């Protein structure tokens, strides 16, 4: 590569890495060239090489492992947040097999922000499940789902319902209010997701309501930033 091209060398390196990923020369989870290799190959500084790798990662095409380097991201999950269809079935239709691990299942009492969020009285019995969702062993997101116990008996925490809680992933409720924002992965979720602390992630909150409009379930998800592409269908009225 020379500096005579119209594009800056930095951009050429980024485009070259993206082309290798798109063409399959660099397959899922394959290691990207190191800063040193890129710097020597393209006769640029280590800083320029680092910027190029960071740009590829920022676009969600690569992820980092501490002291190991950067690797090609697996296939992105196309997630239609406007659909109340089964999440696992939707992933399967894209050729992505979902694995679920139930990390914790407990009974709590409504307090703090959950009182307002779920329109529940202080002390109301709630069920809370925390799950880790993976594909081919690669973590996608961690979710904590809190439901009003008297309205969701099927989610009773206990040994008789472990399989149900592991497999179930159809959104509860009739309508949902969804908020999606960028976040920096705090150490605990980063550890669960196998990510670097404070790297870019996606935070999603979903409040599901029944047909009468009453809150029934609150879900909080933390995603690896490179693992999903969110979409929704809007109904525009005049």
Automatic annotation (TrEMBL):
Source taxon at top rank: Bacteria
Keywords: DNA-binding, Transcription, Transcription regulation
One MF annotation (Gene Ontology) recorded for this entry: DNA binding
Matches recorded under InterPro entries: Bact_HTH_transcr_reg (IPR050679), Chorismate_lyase_/UTRA_dom_sf (IPR028978), Tscrpt_reg_HTH_GntR (IPR000524), UTRA (IPR011663), WH-like_DNA-bd_sf (IPR036388), WH_DNA-bd_sf (IPR036390)
Ranges in a coiled coil: none
Record-linked Pfam families: GntR (PF00392), UTRA (PF07702)
Residues spanning the signal sequence: none
GO terms for biological process, alphabetical: negative regulation of DNA-templated transcription
Residue intervals of the HTH gntR-type domain: 7-75
Designated name of the protein: HTH-type transcriptional repressor YvoA
Organism of origin: Roseovarius albus
């Amino acid at each position: 590569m020379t500096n005579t091209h119209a594009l800056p060398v930095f951009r050429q390196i980024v485009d070259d890495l993206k082309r290798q990923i798109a063409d399959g020369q660099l397959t899922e989870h394959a290691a990207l060239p190191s800063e040193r290799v890129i710097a020597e190959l393209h006769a640029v500084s280590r800083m320029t090489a680092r910027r190029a790798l960071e740009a590829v990662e920022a676009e969600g095409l690569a992820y980092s492992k501490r002291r190991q380097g950067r690797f090609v991201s697996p296939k992105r999950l196309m997630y239609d947040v406007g659909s109340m269809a089964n999440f696992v079935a939707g992933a399967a239709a894209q050729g992505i097999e979902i694995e679920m691990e139930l990390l914790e299942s407990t009974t709590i009492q409504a307090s703090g922000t959950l009182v307002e969020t779920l329109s529940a009285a202080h002390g109301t019995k709630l069920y809370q499940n925390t799950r880790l969702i993976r594909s081919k062993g690669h973590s996608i997101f961690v979710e904590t789902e809190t439901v009003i116990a008297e309205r969701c008996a099927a989610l009773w925490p206990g040994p008789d319902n472990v399989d149900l809680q592991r497999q179930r992933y159809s959104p509860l409720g009739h309508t949902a209010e969804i908020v999606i924002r960028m976040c920096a992965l705090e150490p605990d979720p980063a550890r669960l997701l196998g990510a670097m602390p404070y790297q870019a992630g996606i935070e999603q909150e979903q409040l599901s309501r029944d047909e009468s409009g009453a809150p029934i379930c609150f879900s909080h998800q933390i995603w690896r930033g490179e693992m999903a592409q969110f979409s929704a269908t809007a109904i525009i009225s005049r």
